[in-house]
TrEMBL record:
InterPro entries linked: ZIP (IPR003689)
This protein's GO CC annotations: membrane
Family: Belongs to the ZIP transporter (TC 2.A.5) family.
Membrane topology: Multi-pass membrane protein
Source species of the chain: Grantiella picta
Protein name: Zinc transporter ZIP13
Catalytic activity of the protein: Zn(2+)(in) = Zn(2+)(out)
Gene giving rise to this polypeptide: Slc39a13
Length: 149
């Protein structure tokens, strides 16, 4: 097995830990924010996990081992949620959320800026770039509309 598979598993566990932090902290804010955050993370995670599964297969894992290892990284999300709940301040959820949500949001922004933007800039076909920018803007619009309701 190649080391890239194990590195991917470690990165995925850390990623899932931050997702668990975000989901639990969002539910501490309100049920609505919690559900919206959960849906956003699920929409992000479905293609992400498929890609990670493919990376594990290329690294030499068989399908069953790759699936088990992918499932085991989900424990990072559970640990992140438990950490957010246990870190709740006696003064209320506001102090906990005050550092968790900016921390996880910063992680998402970092991933977008480091992974997505360079690919957009290297795209040779202007139509593909325009499609990606329009989809990005539509995602932001959906988030704003959901926040207003």
């Amino acid at each position: 097995l190649q080391i890239s598979g194990y590195l991917n598993l470690l990165a995925n566990t850390i990623d899932n830990f931050t997702h668990g932090l975000a989901v639990a902290a969002s539910f501490l804010v309100s049920r609505k924010v919690g559900f919206l955050t959960t849906m956003a993370i699920l929409l992000h995670e479905i293609p992400h996990e498929v890609g990670d599964f493919a990376i594990l297969l290329r690294a030499g894992f068989d399908r069953w081992s790759a699936a088990k290892m992918q499932l085991s990284t989900a424990l990072g999300g559970i640990l992140g949620a438990c950490f957010a709940i246990c870190a709740q301040s006696p003064k209320g959820a506001g102090e906990t959320v005050a550092w968790i949500l900016p921390f996880t949001s910063g992680g998402f922004l970092y991933i977008a800026l480091v992974n997505v933007v360079p690919d957009l800039l290297e795209e040779k076909n202007p139509w593909n770039s325009l499609q990606q920018i329009l989809l990005l803007c539509s995602g932001i619009t959906v988030m704003v509309l959901l926040a207003l309701t």
